[in-house]
Sequence to fold (250 residues):
Amino acid sequence: MIYEYPPNFARFYDVIYQQLRDSVDHTFFLKEIRQTKGKVLEIGVGTGRFFTDALHEGADVYGIDISPSMLDVLKGKLDKNDHHRISCQSITDFRFDMQFDLIIAPFRVFQHLLEKEEQLQALNNVYRYLMPGGKFIFDTFVPNLDMLIEGIDNVTDFDGEYAPGKMLKRIVSTQPDLISQLIHIHFKLEWEEENTTKHEDWQLPFRFFFRYELEHLVERSDFDDYKILGDYQGNELKPDSKEFIMVCSK
Fold:
């Protein structure tokens, strides 16, 4: 099942994640793109958090996403001559008439793949479109067991302005399914518009992974070389790591 972003989640995405996420992973992925001399593909390009900066810096970058509402926001940022660089496609079955030297799926794209079959399908599809010597980088979080078991209940993770004098709030709740390794997430947006408070809700399941599960998964795929980093500074895994950053090479 595809869980597309609702229109207002796409509308406010940049406002929320520029605050919550840019300081975490932006430098890491832009550095990888800058170091790539050939073509780059960003899977889960969304509203272009990495894509627009990479394009402005001269990267030969392309992007795909399954959410038309997110791509509509991105198209509004691009010159029409660059619209051909983005398309509505899925990681499991995207198609191009070219190969890429770097493919990235940042900010938990892989955790939207709930079943083993589609996870392997995604890995093998990416492998097919990598140039020899190319890299595929994706990230997942290291599970926080206390949070998985207890979940969170109506936690406000963003409370600020989306325009001068207009407030925006996002409230998050989670419910774990430990057997299926899923987190059921409920997001609620509240924002001020037209002299009233508006609301929009969105629910989706999110897959969590453990280290050796990821290793076995990659080893079952067409990839035969990989390493796991533990943070966005490029350090190896250690007991207090909060990220699994998979770097798979063809």
